[in-house]
Amino acid sequence: MTKTEKDLLQQNKMLLKQQAEFLKEIKQLNENIAYLTNKLYGHHSEKMDDPNQQSLFEEDGSFTDPEQTGEQSEESEVISGENSKARKPKKKRSEIISTNLPTEDEIYDSPVKCCKSGHDLEKIGKHFVREEVRLIPGRLYVARIFETTYKCGNAS
What we know:
The protein contains four helices and three strands; from the N terminus they run ααααβββ. With 156 residues, the protein is of the alpha+beta class. Strands 1-3-2 form a three-stranded mixed beta sheet, with no helix packed on it. A hairpin with a 2-residue loop joins strand 2 and strand 3 (139-152). It is elongated and about 110 Å long. It starts with a helix and ends with a strand.
């Protein structure tokens, strides 16, 4: 055998050894993926925490309606009523904004003074839009914002 053939055989052995290591690593990574996939998406146990709790399903898997069987007790209603907390209704904006803050009215006027037909618009009043609490350094006030309302002057 020549020197190049010996080098090629040695290189071949080294590559086969490296291939075996890669295959072993791939096998280990596939096992890790399978384990984590099973852990994430696999079957989970749904054990009952309270042994006194009744099941909604019979042993054969059919659904049991307590109203039809007459097994519903009045005690369960009393117990559930004691445990549940009454929710407070959310406060409205008018309840949140303090009534003792100074107010300023701001009226916004529309730049359009003609209707779609080309007639002049007549001012008839103002329409309430919203309230805003504004803070300018050293000054806190409620801005009540209105917009001017118009009607067509040629309306009959």
